[in-house]
Specification:
Two copies of one chain form a homodimer.
Chain A (H helix, E strand, L loop, with lengths): L1 E7 L7 H14 L6 E8 L4 E8 L2 H10 L6 E4 L2 E2 L1
Antiparallel strand pairs in A: 1-3, 1-4, 2-3
């Protein structure tokens, strides 16, 4: 298991309710890939969304986001933290 | 005060010690701009670093990172969270 930060670049105007709904859609299916989405941060002005997760690998993160209907544009493993 | 996620794109190969040192350099001067750097996540393979902070505005975040010697490439306010 590692920690991952992924980025979505096209969620301009995202509201609190929409982000909560999108995050819940991940949570609903994340166990099927052994992923644990911990937190999401969004900037409605730019459309950037950052998601932090624990997962066996980056592809598992990608698959959950894809199946939940909001594929990630970038996924990075972030093993170094401070 | 708001919450901000900023990105550095050029820290390829960053080690745990180097990230801790860079983060500490922010912490040492952040009070001068009313910023609170809460966490940093790094991917040494891609060189991507993500920093989460509380700050009065994005420019305050930029100024601390610049003065600490590692200017941010992008800064986003992230008021929507899940």
């Amino acid at each position: 298991m590692g920690e991952f930060m992924d980025i979505h670049r096209s969620m301009k105007g995202v509201t609190q309710d929409q982000l909560a709904e999108a995050h819940q859609a991940d949570l609903d299916i994340q166990d099927t890939e052994g992923v644990n989405f911990k937190k999401a941060w969004a900037d409605p002005d730019s459309g950037m969304v950052f998601c932090l997760s624990e997962a066996p690998n980056a592809d598992a993160v990608r698959r959950i986001h894809e199946r939940a209907g909001h594929p990630a544009d970038e996924v990075y493993e972030v093993p170094v933290q401070a």
